[in-house]
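Hi Y.,

Following your request, here is the sequence exactly as I used it, all 475 residues.
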Amino acid sequence: MHTTPLYRQLANHYLDAIRSGTLKTGERFPSIRLMMEKHAVSLSTAVQVCRELEDCGVLEARPRSGNYIRQPDVLATPRTAPPPPLDSDIYAGIHQQVSLVLKASQRATIEVNFASACCAPELYPLKALQDPMIKALRRAPQLLGTTGTTAGHIALRTVLARRALTAKTHLSAEQIVITHGATEAINLALRAVTRPGDTVAVESPTSYGLLQIIESLNLRVQEVPASAHAGINLFALEQLLNGPGRIKALIVMPNLQNPLGSIMPDAHKARLVQLCAEHNTVLIEDDSYGELVDNDQPLSTLKHWDRTDNVIYCASLNKTLAPGLRLGWISAGRWHARVEMLKYTQSRGCDTLAQVAVSGFMRTPSYERYLRRLRKILTQQRQQMSAAILKYFPGGTRVTRPRGGTLLWVELPREYSSMVLFHEGLKAGIQISPGDIFSNDTRFNHFVRIGCGAPYSPQIDEALATLGQLLNNQR
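Below is the corresponding structure, written out as tokens. Let me know if you'd prefer a different format.
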């Protein structure tokens, strides 16, 4: 039996690492000594590995500096199996259309990202969070060596409960569970109140991430029309609730809905809560964007109108404060014990150090000052982006005017395809969110969601002009 020499086995190992991107062009290659120690090989074997890689054209020696990765021609025809095609069944059970779009984005080189719903990193109070994190470590260095409670750090839960009071929402710190963002919060809420095969209603259009969650839990989805003016259509919802099928739960974003940016009037919020209680449909509220409303007057939550403990409240700091910390929370009321146990089985507790730092910052007046400043910046950015879209995009294009947040919902003339624009945009290094992924229907295939979280710049202006030209090319 033919056995591949050890030096060639190691050379193939490093070739695969270069092809996969683990080792990147321009990076320094491990030294001869390090290879000898890491792989327990002789000096001659390590040298042969380097010579083999040089012969393949992936390694170049620099005098008195060492070996470095270079981009070779050989990598254009990799020996390993090619990546699976985009229509692979590996996405079964996690909403294939959404997954295909996300995968295509991951494979592209993105220079301008309009698909993000977050702000640019420089707009977040990173230094203000760094300082309390360092102080917390100095006071309690054991934080990194211990696991936190499943429900989360009591200091953060207390801050969140007190801030909810400003929106006339009564949450108990003991009834709050800290989660890995709103995504985990909604996952927990659905797992607590549904079983596979149950039907869950959502706004249409809705967050594509929500469609992924619902499908991954083997739930059926029922879409209810929503408008940028007032959110979910209560008449259509009532007709659905009075229909033959049972709607086990309804998930809504009443404040700055994603992608519409709508804000439900208070009267609609009260009626929605009442409708769900009458039909024994659990109401799951996602309030991830509420604090980004333009004015300083807090918006009321659905939980404020809840008199029967039928509303599960979910929220997040990912969009408003620190996406990198992945902190969200859920107040599940009568389902609290089940949610806490599900949280333990799903992911245990969240990072304690991050919770301590965030709670320390949110307790100070600096947090409110930061939010006021951020709201003003986002208002300006949305206005600039909207003006540029109407300038560069085809005549007949319409853009929502949300009263806060980071998103614009753009309606193109019907003859244009947002999915075609998505793929052509990727080729130009520009990422958008095509309307197709915000519904299981095809009604939004001429819509685009544009993120406005980055300060307006010549690069952004040029990218929008490019998108406009790509649209004109569809004619």
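The chain has a mean pLDDT of 91.

Thanks again,
Q.
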